[in-house]
Write a structure and sequence with these properties.
The structure is a single chain. Helix content is 36%, strand content 10%. It is of the alpha+beta class. α1 packs across α3. A hairpin with a 5-residue loop joins β1 and β2. The protein has a two-stranded antiparallel sheet with strand order 1-2.
Length: 153
């Protein structure tokens, strides 16, 4: 059950020596039960059940306020979160456009935040929590497993 995996085929121990120096030591390979190495191939599930895109975004930088004219990975992740939460319908890019600002304003209004169209720390934390809440209400892999088991009874 689930989604195609990435294909990380090694297990590594990392030892940090200084701020800029580390040693990565490969200690094992990930193999399937028949001995196939999954490196760069991943695993394909028998039953596909992927999570929404917002499940794969990283946490936001709470020390930065984002606004129209800026760009970056956090802004792309913001758009993904707002899209999956139902506030943004535009194309996902790294740019903070007027349509992103409008989506942020709609989110802020719906969640009783100060409506500015800018994404400050309070808005970012609120969106992160909304993503967590939405993801915790539904587990596509678990739902698919329940469906498969119900058919086998």
């Amino acid at each position: 059950m689930g989604a195609q995996s990435y294909g990380k085929g090694t297990v590594q121990n990392i030892t940090q020596y200084t701020d800029n120096d580390e040693l990565k030591l490969t200690i094992a390979k990930w193999l399937t039960p028949d001995g196939t190495w999954i490196n760069k191939k991943g695993l394909t599930p028998d039953y596909k059940a992927d999570y929404p895109e917002m499940a794969y975004i990283t946490t936001f930088n709470h020390h930065q306020t984002y606004q129209v004219g800026q760009s970056g990975t956090d802004i792309k992740n913001l758009q993904i979160a707002l899209k999956d939460l139902g506030y943004y319908s535009g194309k996902v890019t790294k740019g903070y456009t007027e349509s992103v600002a409008q989506a942020v304003q709609a989110y802020q209004q719906a969640n009783h935040l100060t409506v500015t169209g800018k994404t400050d720390a309070k808005t970012m934390r609120s969106i992160e929590q909304a993503v967590i809440n939405a993801l915790s209400k539904s587990d596509p892999a678990l739902n698919k497993a329940e469906q498969v088991l119900a058919k086998q009874k």
